[in-house]
Amino acid sequence: MKTLLLFAAAAVVGALAWGFTTGAQAVPARSVSRRVEVDSAWSATLSGDPTAATAAFLARVPADVRARGDAFGNTRYIALLGRVAVLAGTIAILMFSGAAIGMRDLARRITSRVPLQDAIVAVQTLAAFFLLSLPIETYAGFVRVHHAGFSRMSYATWLGDAVLSWAVAVPFFAVGVVAIYALIRRRPQSWMVWATGVYALLTAVFILLMPQFIAPLFNTIAPMADGPQKQAILSLARANGVPANDVFVQNASRQSELLNAHVTGFGGTAQIVLDDNTITKTPDAEVRLVMAHEIGHYVLAHVAKGIVFDTLLTALGFLFVGWGATRLISRFGDRWGVSGLRDVGAFPVFWGLLMLWGFLALPLSNGIAREQEAEADMFGINASQSPLGLAEFMIRDADAGQLDPSPLVESVFYNHPSPRNRIFRAMRWRAEHQKP
Ligand SMILES: [Zn+2]
């Protein structure tokens, strides 16, 4: 336990030092204009050839902005490698230092009830993972965003949010761990199947609670101010069979300057939420396209389908955990002092491998997400009849990532099609609709 506490203390001190020193530096200015503005004459003379029109849009991004986007895009690989390394390190520290069995034995001293023991071990382990990953999460979520000029949030506020989202997730994880460990002991061969059901149920409850109970812990979400823009969006929603009587706006500028919107919840709790940045920084025509894209996510039931896909991927994840943990425990079990997966003293191995699966499965999960985004783009263009709106919107935050990554990079790391591909599809739609 002493080794773990030393590592955790070092991680926390390092993260706080890194975060607060970064936070004390001024947020660098982004280029004022991230694209060359044009008038309607430019659009009127835009080539009818999709490839040429796409190139014309990309050419409006100044070279320095493009270089900043590429550089920022590269930091995500560092973040990913760092996260995987920290995950492996955390498993090793917890298991080889004896901290994992220390946590188990502490839980046994507190209570004789096995489900409670499992829950206590889960909370301790999740706290250890959180603390040890604080430096890499500080880099991924705060330092690189601050250096790129995308956020004016203080480190203290960022850290407060990180602790809060951990605290919100922990009860769900603890319930899941108690249920899944009971299954591992009762059904040692087929627990993965039942665990998948537990995962689906907990995820559905979490997403159901998201709009009304979880999102408001982090942002203020309020109905959009009445006016012609809101009426136009509601009209678009009605035209596409969405029974919405309100449009919501969240103060996303609290966390980031980047432009976005999203759909949360499902069934009766679903909300289409527009970020305040998007309203204040983009013209009405582009806001309309963004909302048409979000209405597409809603109409195509992407949140509910997302839970299904996510559950299927997690089922594979449980197979991976079962396979990996059995091998690791048979190799190191004696040194670790754990007898098998059913021993909650090996929970860090279970949890670490499940998290690792999340990274290994990125090509699959991102592939599914990209497919849904491409569908929402098509829906949005058809509903708004505005391919130019999509193309314009795609070159607004041109410093926030690579506009035209290689197909390999796109397939592994992108949860949206690349801006180049999204513009190209919009231009292809335009070309086909211009044909007499
Ligand atoms: Zn989308």
Entry summary:
This protein is mainly alpha-helical and 436 residues long. The protein has helices at residues 2-24, 40-44, 50-58, 63-96, 99-110, 114-132, 134-147, 155-186, 191-214, 228-239, 276-281, 284-299, 302-336, 347-360, 362-384, 387-394, 407-413, 419-434; strands at residues 221-223, 248-250, 261-264, 271-275.
Commentary on this structure:
The protein has a domain at 221-254 and 267-300 and 368-434. Helices cover 71% and strands 3% of the residues. It has 436 residues and is mostly helical. Strand 3 (261-264) and strand 4 (271-275) form a beta hairpin. The termini are far apart. Bound molecules: zinc ion. Zinc ion binds at residues 293, 297, 373, 376. Zinc ion binds next to helix 12 and helix 15.
